């Protein structure tokens, strides 16, 4: 009990997984003398709803049990009993629903999406010898993955939280020491034409996150649903503590890439931008020049890096933008690049969709 409370405090009350017990309603009793059928038991549905969180579900229903209503029995007045009351559980959009054995039941990606998780039992009828059947019972796992247009990727102290506060209206917790965000922060970039782009500052990676070190999978799973990635690196490099090795900006990018591909290889293929942060620091321009050389010809520098740090392939960034979250340098350019990149990908998807529709049409005519 104490451990779960400590975990809740550690993650600032943010929850991204929850197990709940669901039970469909029992059917109503049939009426054998008159051949009457009892009403079917109610069903349990999960319904995606904005402004709902897993923590709120747990707070409002600590027992985490959701049971649908019992079907009405058949009677002389109503030979066909009424169906039991359905139970609807409001969950946040971005939920994957898994059975207790890990099998995927479905996803709820937008408000209004619904999934049936426990069907009510049949009412008593001829087939059941007029005896009611019990409803379906199961424990389901709700796994929340943040949905955002852009996900910030970086090691602790790369300045992701500061950057998010500069480009959006978010007010994340910020520290001036190697500090990692303990819960996802979501901000929105507002453009003059009223376009809005959501950006998520996800809990900070550390080396070995793919193996669930640090916040490990708690971080990495949230990146799966973002449309694009924005790598944020400190131009002067990174060192977590006096006991860990110093990493240059180039090595940091290689390690971040490796962590993503070791967790799930397809993450490496997501469109990505690179923000080189802290350009206000002394010698930042020299460090940037060196990094740009290494990124333009990565093969020339890979021999300087330990083999175990190397990803299978390097990421080809769509844009590299030098910025300073402290002074505001490059922030407007970064916002423009984010918008341009997302628009280009949306146009590409539209063209591919139209080509696929045309292909299907041509195939059906043959």
Shape type: elongated
Distance between the termini: 65 Å
Percent of sequence in beta strands: 15-25%
Instruction: Estimate the helix proportion, in percent.
Output: 25-40%
Give start-end ranges of low-pLDDT stretches.
1-12, 174-181, 207-216
Mean pLDDT: 85
Total strand count, please? Answer: 14
Give Rg in angstroms. 26 Å
Count every helix, treating DSSP H or I runs of 4 or more residues as helices.
Answer: 7
Q: Quick one: biggest sheet?
A: 6 strands, mixed
- How is the quaternary structure best described? single chain
Order of helices and strands: HEEHEEEEEEEHEEHEHEHEH
Structural class: alpha/beta
Instruction: State the strand order across the main sheet.
Output: 10-11-9-12-13-14
């Amino acid at each position: 009990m104490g451990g779960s409370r400590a975990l809740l405090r550690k993650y600032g009350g943010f929850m991204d997984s929850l197990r709940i017990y669901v039970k469909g309603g029992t059917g109503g009793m049939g009426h054998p003398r008159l051949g009457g059928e009892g009403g079917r038991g109610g069903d349990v549905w999960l319904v995606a709803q904005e402004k709902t969180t897993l923590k709120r579900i747990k707070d409002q229903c600590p027992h985490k049990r959701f049971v649908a209503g019992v079907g009405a029995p058949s009677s002389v007045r109503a030979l066909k009993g009424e169906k039991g009351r359905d139970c609807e559980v409001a969950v946040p959009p971005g939920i994957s629903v898994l059975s207790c054995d890990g099998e995927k039941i479905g996803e709820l990606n937008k408000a209004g999406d619904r999934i049936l998780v426990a069907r009510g039992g049949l009412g008593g009828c001829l087939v059941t010898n007029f005896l009611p059947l019990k409803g379906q019972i199961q424990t389901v796992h709700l796994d929340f993955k943040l949905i955002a247009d852009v996900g910030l990727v970086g090691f602790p102290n790369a300045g992701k939280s500061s950057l998010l506060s500069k480009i959006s209206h978010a007010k994340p917790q910020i520290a001036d020491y190697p500090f990692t965000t303990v819960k996802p922060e979501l901000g929105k970039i507002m453009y003059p034409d009223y376009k809005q782009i959501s950006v998520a500052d996800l809990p900070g990676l550390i080396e070995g996150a793919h193996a669930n070190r640090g916040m490990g999978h708690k971080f990495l799973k949230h990146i799966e649903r973002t449309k694009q990635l924005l790598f944020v690196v400190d131009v002067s490099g990174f060192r977590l503590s006096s006991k860990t090795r110093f990493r240059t900006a180039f090595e940091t990018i290689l390690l971040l890439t490796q962590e993503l591909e070791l967790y799930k290889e397809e993450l490496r293929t997501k469109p990505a931008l690179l923000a080189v942060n802290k350009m206000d620091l002394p010698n930042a321009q020299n460090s940037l020049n060196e990094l740009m050389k290494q990124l333009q010809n990565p093969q020339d520098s890979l021999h300087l890096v330990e083999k175990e740090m190397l990803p299978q392939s390097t990421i080809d960034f769509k844009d590299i933008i030098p910025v300073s979250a402290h002074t505001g340098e490059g922030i407007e350019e970064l916002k423009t690049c984010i918008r341009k990149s997302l628009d280009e990908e949306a146009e590409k998807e539209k063209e591919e969709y139209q080509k696929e529709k045309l292909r299907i049409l041509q195939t059906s005519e043959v």
